[in-house]
Structures are given as C-alpha cells and as structure tokens.
Amino acid sequence: MPVLLLVDGSSYLYRAFHALPDLRTSQGEPTGAIRGVLSMLRRLESDYKAEFRACVFDAKGKTFRDELYPEYKSHRPPMPDDLRAQIEPLHAAVQAEGWPLLAVEGVEADDVIGTLTRQAQERGWEVVISTGDKDLTQLVRPGVKWVNTMSEEVLDEAGVEEKFGVPPERIVDYLALVGDAVDNVPGVEKCGPKTAVKWLTEYGTLDNLVANADKVGGKVGENLRKHLDFLPLGKKLVTVATDVALPLELDALPARGDDKAALRALYERFEFRGWLKDLDGPGGSAPVRKDGGGARSANAAAPEASGAVAAVEATDPPAAPGAHRGSYVTILDWATFDAWLAKLDAAALVAFDTETTSLDPMAAQLVGMSFATVAGEAAYLPLAHRGPDVPAQLPFAEVLARLKPWLESDAHAKLGQNLKYDAHVLANHGIRLAGMAHDTLLESYVLESDKSHDMDSLAKRHLGLTTIPYTDVCGKGAKQIGFDEVALERASEYAAEDADITLRLHRTLWPQLEAVPALAALYRDVEMPAMQVLFDMERTGVLIDDFLLAQQSEELGRRLMALEREAHELAGQPFNLGSPKQLGEILFGKLGLPVVKKTATGQPSTDEEVLVQLSDDYPLPKLLLEHRGFAKLKSTYADKLPRMVNPKTGRVHTSFSQAVAVTGRLASSEPNLQNIPIRTAEGRRIRAAFIAPRDHVIVSADYSQIELRIMAHLSGDARLLEAFAHGEDVHRATASEVFGVTPAEVTSEQRRYSKVINFGLIYGMSAHGLAKNLGIDRAAAQGWIDRYFARYPGVADYMERIKGEAKAKGYVETVFGRRLYLPDLRAQQVGRRQGAERAAINAPMQGTAADLIKKAMIAVHGWLGASGLKSRLILQVHDELVLEVPRDELELIRRELPARMGGVAELAVPLLVEVGAGNNWDEAH
DNA sequence: CTGCTAGCATA
DNA sequence: GTATGCTAGCAGA
User: What percent of chain A is helix, strand and coil (3-state, nearest 5)?
Assistant: First the structure.
C-alpha cells in the first residue's frame, strides 16, 4: 500500500525559527530555520519509506477563514524579517532535496494537507502527517497518523485520545470549546481542556452539548450559553478543510531524487559544510540512496524519471503493524548465503543481531543471526531451530566457520542493539566479535538516558514504527519457549526486523549525536570503548569461596533460628519474622508499641529506623533488627552467590548494564556485585568470600571522596579547593570551618556531623532531611546548613546556579557534557519538582564520577592489554575498581594504578586513588 | 504464576 | 536528601 508523507512546512518553519539558534552565514544571511526544516525532511526521509510526499507551505492571499471572521489571526505580529528572508531559499532547497512543494494561493497549508489526506484515504493509501500543529490531529484515522518530527511525538487514533481525552473525530468540537489563542479564535470563557473533555464525554458531541446547554451548571455553563451564537463559526474556523481545489493530483507527488547540482549551490550559499561533504561521497550517515529499497530509492537513482508513478513493493506483507517491513529473506541455501556474505563483505556498516536460547549471556547458544545493510532489507540466517516442521537449515559449524572471518574482522564495521550481548553469544561458540562500531542502545542512552532503550520503544519513539515484541514470538513467563522452538517464518520476520530497525535507528540517532560534539565524544570515546571493557570483565568473572559461604550460611541459619525462638517467646506466640504484616500485628497490635511512622500504603512501618527507635524501650525490636540483618545476609548473599557460580568457568559472572542508570553509572545484576556488604563485621565476612586464585591477589583501588572533589571542581569554591589541594581530611576541615575550631580541636562528634552535611550536599539536602539524619530539629539543621554556606559561598552559589540552569535548559550536564534531562522540574506537584531539583544538584556530581571511572576503566584495560600484563579488571563499584592480580605483578600494579586512574582528567582538584591488596576483597580494603 | 510492597545492601 | 538491584511475603489471577 503506498504511503503519502505530508509535511507542514509552514508550521516547522515557524517553530524552527524560534526554537533553533540564530545561525547565519558569514554574509549575515539567516539560515537557522532553513537548516532546521531541511534536517527534519531528511529525518523523515530516512524514517518513512513513502512513495509519495509533499512539503506544504502557506501562501499569500486571503483564505476562507478571513472572509468568515475578520479577526482570524489578526492579532499576530508581522513576520520577522529574518524569518521572511528564509522562505524563498527554503522553498528552493526543499525542491532540490526532491520534495514536491505545494503553496496554494488563498489556501492555508492545513487545508491542503486535509484535502490531500482525504484523497489518499479514498485510494486506500496510508498517510503520515508531519507537523508541529496539534490541530491537525483531527485528521487522524486508521491508516492516517500524526507525527511531530521536532518533538518526536507520534499519534495514532488511540494516541490522540490518550493525549487529549477525545478521539480525533471530536478534536474540532474540543477546539471550538477551548478556542485557539494562536489563531485568535475565542472559545468558551473559562473552558479549558478539562472542562471540554468532561462535557464531550458527558454529551458525546458538540451538537448534543449545545442542544443540552441549559442543563450545564456552574459559571462555565453560563459562559457556554453566552457563547452559543459563536460556536458554529468557531467550529468552522478550527475545522481543517478536506475539499479545497488543488492545482494538481496525488499522482503528481512522487518522491523524487535530489538535484545534486542545485543542492550544492544552495548548501554553498548557506555554508552547510557538513552537508556539502555528504553530497560528495555517500557518508556513513547519509540517508539510503542506493539499490534495493522501495520506489523512492529507485527514483532517487534516476532523478530524470521524476514523473514516473512509484511502483508498489511486491514483497510488502499486508499486515498493518508490519507495514514498514521491507523485503526480508530467510537464508536456507548456500546460494543465498553466498550472496549475503558478499553483501556483508562489501557493506560499510552492517546491522547485526543474534537470536539465542537464553537471555543469560554466558549460557546463551546461537539459534540464528540476522543482518541488514540497507534500510528495509534484511536477512535471517536460521541455524538451530528445532521442531517437526522446520525446513533443513544450513549446517551450523560450516556456516559459522565461513562467517568467522567477517565476524572477527575489525575492518568490517558492525552495528547492533546491545552488542555486548551478541559478543557473549558468539564467544560461547569460540568467536571473538570484532569491529563493533556502533550500538543503538548506547546511542539512545547518551542522547536521552532517562528514556527507555529497548528496541520496541526506540522504534516507536524515533521511527513511529510498531515492532514485534519478543513476548509475541516467544510468549512470557512459565509458558515462554526458547527462540529455537519458534516457527521459522515467525522467527525470520522477528529477527530480520530487529536488524532492519537497528539500522534505521542508527541512521536517525547517530546524526543527532553528531550534532552535539560533547555527546558524540562521550559515545565514541567513553561508552563504546567501555562496552568492550565490560564485556571482558563479565567474561572473566570473579572467584568466590563457596565453601566459606556455605559455612556462613549454616551459621547464619543457626543464629536466625535462635533469634526466632527468642522473638516468639517475647511475642508470646509464633509468627513469621520476615513478614512486615505479621510483625506489625504483633508489635503494634498485640504488644501495643507506639506507631512511629507509616508506610506508603498506610500500614505502620517496621523498618530499620523505627525498630532502632523502639529498641530503646522494648526488647523485641532489637532482636528483630539482628534477625533482619542476618536474614538479608543469608538469603541475598550466602545462599545466593554459590548458586550463581557458572559450572563451566567455576566463577560468578555478573552482568553490567550500561544503559539503565540515568546519571551514567553502571548497574550490576544477576547477581548484583555492587552491593556486597561492607559496613558490618558480619557483612564483611561475605566480602571475604570473594577470593583470588592461587598465586593471585585481589587489588581494590578507589577514588577518595570523588563526588566532593567534583563538587569542589564544579563550584570552584576557594576553601574547598584548598582543602583538597593540601590533602586535608575534608570532613575534619568542614568541621573546623563550621564549628569554628582548629582542625586539631575537632571532636569525633563534630566530624561525624560534618560528614553527614557533606553527603547531604551531594544529595541536594534539605534542612528536613539533615535534621532527620542527625536526630536534631529542623531549625538546628538549617543553622548548620547556613553556617556551611557562609563558610563555603562558592558551593552555595553553585547550588543556586545549577538549579537555575536546570530550569532554563531542562537538563544538567556532567563535566564531560553528559546530559541528564529533568522533565519534572516543570511538574505541577511540588514534591516532584523538588525531587527534580535535588536530582539536578546530584546528577552532575554522580554523573561526572561515573564518567571518570569509565575513563579509568578504559585506560587501565588498555594499559594492561598493551603491556601484556595478566592482571584483569573484574569489578567496578561506582568509585572503586577491583582487579585480580598475579602476585608477581602486584608491585607494578600498586605503583602504577593510582596514576592511571587519577590521570584520566585534569580537574581543579587532584584525584586521589587509594589502593589495597589482599587474598580476598575484604582484605584488599 | 505474576506483580506489587516493604525492606535493605551498596556508592 | 541522590542512584541502583534483589529478597520475602502476599494478594489476585
């Protein structure tokens, strides 16, 4: 089914002009809006394979709305000269890009789009309307969707209803009630979105509402009645016309190829240097213009055939959710395999994905692989599908052997979505994946770490496409089947789509990264290399003493039993100590202890803080605290870790997630090795079970006070910088300042207070939080905060500055330019907003620390590799690196490591690294 | 069997 | 007061 892509050029022109920086050529000609609109067209071109398309602009001349209502748009200020100056050149550029351009005198762009949409619908075509104007959502229908390429919002019927509360058919009713300030169309006074939706939900349509206007109560009801006379006119004004006379037919709008000569001239005039370069050679990120795809590409290869009507792709499957699917093939014979291998060898970049038997990277076995070299075209190579109806697949070993050179070649660039996983899968088959050039997971993460990065979400968000969810193919929960059991046709569809979508995603994400040099650098120089380091760390794993853990488990079990018995005696009845519900009934019901605080659901809380308070006056809470501590150690660590030992390697292989923490930190899971106990003696016994093999030691190197140092750097506070420059104990220095004594006179109590304050600063503390933590009243806590800020004015300034910056920009940055978006800064609820403000303070510090240690990992890993050392990185715990070191390398590592880690950046403070070594992780501290 | 809550381990 | 992941218990399928 052909796709018609309609772009509201006028709406984007205005928005680009106001939203984008004031770009100018050296002659002073404004070009910002031109560039903005053109890059949106390019993005659309790569996002949608549309056989027909048009870019529509408003034209001069009075429209029917002006006739109906002289005030229409009458309040608008005249168009800025800098905007007007860009219209003509933009029109020229749009046409040179191969976009049919429509500007119909006396007709607004909206009405042209409305009319073309109706015509296309009548022919059964699909329509994509790209605009920044929400009024056009009234045109959405099955097969017609609305996308805002600037905000990347995509709305279908359900989406419109979700966003506005009324279906597309009711949008005009809704607009007539609410009015349109932009176009100077008044609505019912005091009737906003909420009221309009309420009325339309109650009365169904505007007409019915009008018929029942006398029944509507309240002041707004009165306003409605006052407005009854105007409503029909208002509705006409907000209704997009679908029947205006157009000077041409749909068939006159095929997607054409670009006019290179014209583009070159225009780009030269606009001084778009990067795009000029793209014109010369097919750059890595240029939209697909060669062979294979659909009618659009075919025409692009032959610009002179611009009048030809696009042919419909014969291999397009019919189903709606897969409408984007191009020609996907399943490789089942050698001839097809050879043809694809030749393609892979020749391609500059190949999107690549594996299908496997398991989500556990160390256990997963290969079931198949998919490849894509051109958007819309992909192949699935099944290797190990099982089942009665499975056709013969090419022989596993032979295929792998023939693919191995390509897979292991650094010169053949691969692109994937979470390539670290694919690298593990291949490693399980003895293949060392090389040439990992791009990863859409990491691209998305660097661009917007607060969003989700799974392929289904990415496809929806960036391409407006609905992909096949994994659970649709394999089911979920207990009934989930392995990918090797999926019917081949279904598997092929799913797998090929994965590769195809990955490629398309890269084509839209990568240019976005390149547009912000700091982000591109972060992606290229930090995240991509870190992925390789993490892969090696995961693969190496850590050795644990499972016998020691088993002993501890038994001992913990005994002590838990004893504690339980005592607790039951004190309670006068047996109950489950691990059940907060039963515990609450005993403590606050039967024993009548005072309720200190409640949980989120209104239940009396029994958490640690509460039990600590109660244990002053009662015996049971103390037992419970001990029980809780031991139970956690036993179940989470002593019992769990031995079960996580990989039978093949005899070691524990955690999984590091590189794209979950919004601040840039890593996360460790299955098992989480970043939360191994350290605070209590009992807990440290767990840590002691992380051991080094024979003739090796565990080395731990951590950044000292990293976040406070970063705070000193970011704030530039003179006193704080000085304290670090002189290698002082910062908490003691803080105490000395705040309490007004010499450092030598600081008591341990004063130092403890200062430490809490320092941590509080990093977390964006409030007086309330500090008071709770120190067990003092709010006023006293505020007093300490005031004294701190008086002594460290640079820090106070910084806190204010960062909050202001966050509000202005919507995000904060790390020292290296990593962005954390904070949409909640504009939230309605005070609580959410304050939370976002605290996050704004914390994120640059936590995030910069994360950047630094990632750089350190890359530096250390590179150094170990380059010098042929056998020492291995095995863990990262946010400010600490853990290595397994052969004894004969210990001296060298001890000597070199601090400088390697400390030298990754020049901050205004020295980066101090403390190194320890021992037979186990506990001893290494 | 799944999804939620409470609680708690780390930096 | 920031950022995570995992466990047991429990309610509702």
Answer: 55, 10, 35
